[in-house]
Amino acid sequence: MSGRKIILSMCLPVAETLKPYQVNFRLFQLAGYGSVKSIPKREFPIYYEKEKKLFQIVVRMSDAPGSLMSILEVLGRKVNLIATSTYTLGDGTAILSAFSEPLSSTETIAGIQKALGSSPVTIESDVTEGKGGLLVDTFHSGLQVGGEDYMLLRRAGLSGVFDHIVKIFGTGGEVLLYEEGLAMAQRNAKNMNDLLTPEVVGPNTSYLIEFLTAQGWGVFEPTAGKGSHEGTVKMSHCFECEHGSTVRKHCDFMRGYFEGSANFTLGVSMQVEELECALRGDKACIYRVTHRKKSGQA
Ligand SMILES: [Zn+2]
Asked: How many structural domains compose the chain?
């Protein structure tokens, strides 16, 4: 049947005729057309939907034009996709990992694997079934960003660690957090220089700050000041303060982080003060970056 070859909903005028060959992303149904507002990326190391039958599908396929389409066509006959991630392995192959719910309640692991085997681009596949509406990603082991190993951490969890440090050590804890921010920024900046070279990092620092936003640290609005490299940075949705605190009144880690980044990148000694902070009732945190005054200077 030639109709089976058509899987994209935009190819067919009537939604009813799509079933069961559509590739249905439930999240995409909400999106519509036009510009898309910035949102946090959805990662799916775990998914729960009460008593729902769920499968994780992992396919290694040839990394050639049309490969992904071929796999989606096969999967569209078997499952609704809840989430997917796709990436090249750089060796002529690519991975598709998907969380999905079957179109039929009698669907099996073997049934999905057989369907995947019918595509000429499939090299190997692995399908696992969840338990009682729960599906955990049993294929991946952490994240890789720019060749570096990363892990996911709850923002509120980390903020809670900061609270605990200040509860135990008081103002000494605040100094500790500032020093940790300073040290981590210098290590990260060195790492970024090694990865991209200083020639690339130097002129692109205000663009590279978006990298922190993409990682979920917060949203940054830098404004240039009068002196060279001086200015302010407004930070909203800051991981250090967004979840509130009963003991902290400022974002000491981020103040250290800004200072460490500026010192390393500019090669001069900068000083950072946090003028406003969400922990003190302000709308966002505002940092002022200035050259550090030499001792004895007014
Ligand atoms: Zn703050």
From this structure: 2
3-state secondary structure 66-94: CHHHHHHHHHHCCEEEEEEEEEECCCCEE
Q: Which domain holds residue 246?
A: 155-291
pLDDT at 119 over 70: yes
Distance 150 CA to ligand 1 centre (A): 25
Among 141, 173, 201, identify where a domain stops. 141
Q: How far is the CA of 78 from the centre of ligand 1 (A)?
A: 49
Residue 116 lies in a domain: yes
209 and 285 inside one domain: yes
CA of 148 from ligand 1 middle (Å) equals 28
User: Are 136 and 166 in a shared domain?
Assistant: no
CA of 265 to the centre of ligand 1 (A): 23
Contact 162, 239 (CB under 8 A): no
Q: Give the integer Cα–Cα distance in Å for 231 and 267.
A: 17
Does residue 62 have a pLDDT over 50?
yes
Q: Per-residue pLDDT tens for 271-280?
A: 999 999 999 9
Reported as a pLDDT band with limits 50, 70 and 90, residue 32 is low
